[in-house]
Amino acid sequence: LAFASNGQSATLTVVHEASPDKYDVIDNVATQRSARTMAFDTKTHHIFLPAAKFGDAPAPTEKNPRPRPPVVPGSFELLEVAP
Q1: Domain parsing of the chain, residue ranges
Q2: pLDDT by residue (tens digit) across 43-82?
Q3: Closest to 34 (Cα-Cα) out of 55, 14, 54
Q4: What is the DSSP string of 6-62?
Q5: Per-residue buried b or exposed e for 7-34, using 16+ beta carbons within 10 Å of the residue's own CB
Q6: Considering only CA atoms, which of 38, 73, 72 is closest in space to residue 54?
Q7: What does the alpha-carbon distance between residue 24 and residue 36 come to, in Å, rounded to a whole number?
Q8: What is the pLDDT of residues 1-48, one digit of tens each?
Q9: Under DSSP, is residue 80 helix (H, G, I), strand (E, B) or coil?
Q10: 82 in helix, strand or coil?
């Protein structure tokens, strides 16, 4: 199996290798929009994805033309996806 965390679409795509040249999407598991980074536990086969909610980005300035939005305090979560 292969996994892809898709933060923008808030999904975790699960892919199966049917043959050396063919891959099938098995599922798209709902996660959270900010859940992009993932870790795989080889013993339990669980996937962990950190996520948080974000506030509004500050206004752009000349010094920081693309400011990042701040994390909403207390909104951090660790999502766990089990087989």
Answers
A1: 2-53+68-81
A2: 999 999 999 999 999 999 999 999 999 999 999 999 999 9
A3: 54
A4: ETTTTEEEEEEEEETTEEEEEEEEE--TT----EE-TTT--EEEEE--B-PPPPP-S
A5: beebbbebeeeeeeeeeeeeeebebbeb
A6: 72
A7: 21
A8: 899 999 889 999 999 999 999 999 999 999 999 999 999 999 999 999
A9: strand
A10: coil
